[in-house]
């Protein structure tokens, strides 16, 4: 008699457990894409913030007899372009001169005068010329010598053919507005609340001759006032003409 082997049915709970284990195993062994780590990049150095308007300083030059021969009051801001030794490219620096740190000197001659301002490693020289025939003076030259920390070497910017700050002998030149004086391709000077008199000083500033920027500011209110006056005149004339016509319409027959 052949023995009969009976198959035992696997409990359904066991089957479910095996299927769950197989699913979890396949999930864990599935290919997982490698994590991509972004390379670290160094951000470019931040450019220095542009300073606000500079403080106004007062400077003077005396002659051999200790009499004041040149007067200047102004705020000064330097715009310099140069090749940075750390970055290897051209950068622009905007610097304010600080009157409390500035040392000033200069000289006066009959037809020329200089004002020299020095702060740390910066020296700024103004050269004025006087035309004795026309009694007119002007700023004829500007020179800047600077050795900033990021400069490979000291740089000198110079222009001796300028024609700024034109004034009359015995009078001062004034420009309250910000004005940019272009000196060289790599250097310009911004002036603020400027008043200068390099010749004919008699104790204090002479009568001021204003720059074009200040005169334009005065011209605008004058134009507006004149336009309003014309408008008022037109209204008055229109009223008078209308009133005259009204009376003409009621004449006694």
From TrEMBL:
Keyword Cell membrane: yes
The UniProt record lists the keyword Transmembrane: yes
One Pfam entry name: Lamp2_2nd
Membrane topology: Single-pass type I membrane protein
Ranges for domain Lysosome-associated membrane glycoprotein 2-like luminal: 54-201
PROSITE patterns: LAMP_3
Top-level division of the source organism's lineage: Eukaryota
TM stretches of this protein: 218-241
Compositionally biased intervals (Pro residues): 45-54
InterPro entries to which the protein is assigned, alphabetical: Lamp2-like_luminal (IPR048528), Lamp2-like_TM (IPR048524), Lysosome-assoc_membr_glycop (IPR002000)
Compartmental location: Cell membrane; Endosome membrane; Lysosome membrane
GO biological process: establishment of protein localization to organelle
Family note: Belongs to the LAMP family.
Protein name: Lysosome-associated membrane glycoprotein 1-like
Provenance organism: Sinocyclocheilus rhinocerous
């Amino acid at each position: 008699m052949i023995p009969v082997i009976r198959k035992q049915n696997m409990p359904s709970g066991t089957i479910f457990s095996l299927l769950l284990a197989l699913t979890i195993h396949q999930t864990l062994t599935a290919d997982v894409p490698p994590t991509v780590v972004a390379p670290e990049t160094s951000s470019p150095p931040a450019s220095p913030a542009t300073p606000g308007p500079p403080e106004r300083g007062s400077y003077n030059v005396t002659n051999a007899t200790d009499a004041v021969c040149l007067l200047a009051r102004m705020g000064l801001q330097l715009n310099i372009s140069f090749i940075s030794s750390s970055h290897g490219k051209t950068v622009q620096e905007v610097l304010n001169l600080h009157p409390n740190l500035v040392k000033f000197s200069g000289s006066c001659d009959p037809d020329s005068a200089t004002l020299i301002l020095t702060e740390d490693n910066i020296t700024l020289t103004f050269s004025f010329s006087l035309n004795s025939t026309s009694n007119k003076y002007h700023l004829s030259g500007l020179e800047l010598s600077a050795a900033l920390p990021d400069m490979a070497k000291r740089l000198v910017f110079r222009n001796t053919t300028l024609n700024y700050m034109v004034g009359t002998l015995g009078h001062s030149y004034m420009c309250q507005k910000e004005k940019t004086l272009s000196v060289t391709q790599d250097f310009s000077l911004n002036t603020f609340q400027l008043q200068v008199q390099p010749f004919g000083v008699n104790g204090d500033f002479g009568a001021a001759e204003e720059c074009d920027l200040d005169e334009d500011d005065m011209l605008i209110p004058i134009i507006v006032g004149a336009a309003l006056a014309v408008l008022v005149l037109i209204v008055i004339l229109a009223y008078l003409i209308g009133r005259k016509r009204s009376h003409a319409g009621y004449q006694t027959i």
